[in-house]
Amino acid sequence: MKPLSAFARALAAAPALLLPTAAWANAGSPPPAWDLTGSWYGMAALLVFVLAYLLVVAEEALHLRKSKPMMIAAAAIWVLVPLAYAAHGNTTLPQEAIRENLLEYVELMLFLLAAMTYINTMQERGVFDVLRAWLVSRGFSLRSIFWITGLLAFVISPVADNLTTALLMAAVVMAVARDNPRFVVLACINIVVAANAGGAFSPFGDITTLMVWQRHMVTFTQFFDLFLPALVNWLVPAAIMSFAVPRGRPRPLTEQVVLRPGGVTVILLFFVTIASAVVFHQYLHLPPMLGMMAGLGLLKLYGYRIKMRERRELAGMNGGNGHAQAFDVFEQLQRAEWDTLMFFYGVILCVGGLAALGYLALVSEALYAGLGATPANVIVGLLSALVDNIPVMYAVLTMQPDMSHGQWLLVTLTAGVGGSLLSVGSAAGVGLMGQARGIYTFFAHLRWTWAVALGYAAGILVHLWLNADLMRLPAGGG
Fold first, then answer.
1. Please, are residues 118 and 214 in contact by the beta-carbon 8 Å criterion?
2. What is an example of a Pfam family matching this protein (predicted)?
């Protein structure tokens, strides 16, 4: 989004903007940030964010949904921002800054809401159950299951989100080898790495890649420059861990699952929706969420057809009551990950507030100007293993350092796959710890972090070699 990009460029120059200004340099351009990091308002805002994020990190222990502390922190920070600006005689700039933040959030929320509804509908129609039943009934060896589930996680996650993909593949692993903890641990680590790597070369694979795409930093087709680096990122640890996979062949399971009516059509509509999002973004130069919402409208219309057919069938079976179990697309809409969507709201407003106070300009100067783009982007990936990659990537996008196209691809890669280093570093890892509770744990993953780290380094090196011509800034700047 060009207005927000201009805002980020202004933020990068924040240390020079120490004197108040009552108007913007150009009409309609987003406001610059002041350096208010040394004020008590700025320090209080940073403290609020740190405390809120500590609660997010402790989500599993406290059983406190991550969106709750972040939403409260967002409100608190945006109380402090206008107070800080008002103390310097200006009440206009914070209003414009928060409008830019809200515009960013609304576009991403609507995009994700449509995508989540499609995934939920495919689950309800039994699409993923059919795939799982086919896999568990084939009688593959443990080593074959290790490679098949990893490969499918890598292939499916660019279209579906990495969490859904990881949970689906983990369900296969648990169904065929629940009584083999050693295999379950290795397979789960492999699935997490593969799902995160697969999501890194597609704008639909992860929220961070979606943000990069919507900011026009990387076009739809340019994401495929990351295919081989992402593939290497998965294959290196997978090859190492495969030698530790126990030998044997679990007993084939007989599981009959029937795809519910409309399942295939929903899949086709989902691909049509993705295509329309690409067309809106690449050719009409409009937000891709417009294409996603159009696709959601198509799903609702088709859902009406499914509902009416099932009502007639249920009425015939239940003696006139055809409403109890008929398909309802709004139920799938309600099943969206609202905690994630609200967490995303809190993250964007918190990071935007800290940016308005000058913190991101300070970090950008220390990280990108001090260390250089490549080391900085590698560190961003390492941070994403400790801190959720959403605020990390949003912070980088808001800083908008002067980087080449190859460097934007590099930070997209590292932020996407860095979370695989720890089980708590990605939604896929956290989800699998719950699904294989007591077997796949933080420390079980940590024993193989060295192998995942080798894949992380190998993927980066492949990108630096393969896309070397993209790493240089064009003449005259970024």
1. no
2. CitMHS
183 has pLDDT over 70: yes
User: Looking up tokens 């700039």, which residue turns up?
Assistant: 93
Per-residue tokens: 222 = 């340019």
Distance from the Cα of residue 334 to its chain's centroid: 20
Q: What is the pLDDT of residue 11?
A: 34
- In the numeric block, which tokens belong to residue 432? 């699998």
Distance of CA 319 to the CA centre of its chain: 47
Q: How far is CA 125 from CA 39, 161, 258, 261, 295, in A?
A: 55, 18, 9, 7, 18
Query: How many angstroms separate the CA atoms of 401 and 415, rounded?
Result: 16
State yes or no: pLDDT of 81 exceeds 50. Answer: yes
Which has more confidence, 378 or 65? 378
pTM, two decimal places: 0.72
CB atoms within 10 A of CB 17: 17
With a CB cutoff of 8 Å and minimum separation 6, the contacts of 260 are 124, 125, 126
Whether the Cβ atoms of residue 206 and residue 161 lie closer than 8 Å to each other: yes
Q: Contact 69/48 with Cβ under 8 angstroms?
A: no
pLDDT band (50, 70, 90) for residue 255: low
Is residue 350 within 8 Å of residue 73, measured between CB atoms?
yes
- CA pair distance 243, 46, nearest whole angstrom: 46
The structure tokens listed for 83 are 């107070």
Q: Kindly compute the dihedral angle of the four CA atoms of residues 327, 118, 296, 308, in this order, to the nearest 10 degrees.
A: -20
59 and 52 Cβ atoms separated by less than 8 Å: no
Q: Average pLDDT in the 190-203 region?
A: 92
Nearest to 150 by CA among 201, 196, 205, 203: 196
Question: Which of 396, 455, 427 lies closest to 161, judged by CA?
Answer: 427
Please tell me the distance from the alpha carbon of residue 60 to that of residue 66, in angstroms, as a whole number.
9
Q: What are phi and psi of 331, to 5 degrees?
A: -65, -35
Tens-place pLDDT, residues 111-120: 878 888 888 8
Can you tell me the distance from the alpha carbon of 423 to that of 190, in angstroms, rounded to the nearest whole number?
Answer: 11
Q: What are the residues whose beta carbons fall under 8 Å from the beta carbon of 310, sequence distance 6 or more?
A: 261, 322, 325, 326, 327
Category of 32 on φ-ψ map: left (φ > 0), alpha (ψ -120 to 50) or beta: beta
Q: 319: pLDDT confidence band, cut at 50, 70 and 90?
A: low
Kindly state the tokens that stand for 56. Answer: 């997010």
| Residue ranges of domains in the chain | 2-21+30-470
* Gap between the Cα atoms of 428 and 447, Å rounded: 18
